[in-house]
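Ticket reopened. Same input as before:
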Amino acid sequence: MRIVATSQHECSDLLKRVSIGRLACSLDNQPYVVPVRFSYEPDRIYIFSTVGKKIKWMRQNPKVCLQADDIGNSSNWMSVIVTGTYLELSEPQYHTAQREHARALLAQDSQWWRIPLSERRDGLVSSIETVFFRIDIESMSGLRAMPETE
Amino acid sequence: MRIVATSQHECSDLLKRVSIGRLACSLDNQPYVVPVRFSYEPDRIYIFSTVGKKIKWMRQNPKVCLQADDIGNSSNWMSVIVTGTYLELSEPQYHTAQREHARALLAQDSQWWRIPLSERRDGLVSSIETVFFRIDIESMSGLRAMPETE
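Engineering reply: fixed in the latest deploy. New output:
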């Protein structure tokens, strides 16, 4: 097995191809990581979420890290790590057009609504507050493993 | 689809069943998340790694969070989040017996050595410094989704 750093282009390709990643945020240096459904476009990642622990934390500390991968098997996989800044699109200063764009991207998957709901355990659907947010990408790096014989 | 909080027993079961998770650490409130291969036993998680960014960060801030899941499809999945403290087993005060225990657990997967090597991109295998570490679990919580019809 060989492991190589991927190009920025390969990182982008993976982020376009997969829709589930793991988003890490941090508060008082306690990290927290959850699975998220996302939609990528150059320099930005869009995520829809209910307001729970991760949103409350990112509102206080907007530094985030998202990891996504495509694992074929233990010697054939690729992983991408993105660092960036949380930006809530529901804040008044951001255009409705951006929220609609995010919604349209994420709605391409008919189950897009399901995963964020998991974060509310009280079953009171009517009380769920939702937000769209964007991660403005600051850095992106990737690794790819492949069988030695390739 | 219904989503329910799982019991501690169900969390343990998932951590025993899966061996790949995502480990988040944090430095100066910048989170960082990477895929890891782990081995769980009650109250502890063992991980083998080369010395890279995550080890350097965890040596400075031992607060960590590990997420693992078992995703059947978008309406049938389970996810577990663990918070805990990094403890390096290679430090002199910790017994060799613990390191051997970690090694034995992780070596059950013949590919266990492969993934940590991915973190070194320079190809100088002879220069790779490796560590075993343990996460002492402080909290563990899980969510499970299942079709409404179940």
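The first strand of chain B starts at residue 2 and ends at 5. The first helix of chain B runs from residue 8 to 17. Please confirm and we'll close it.
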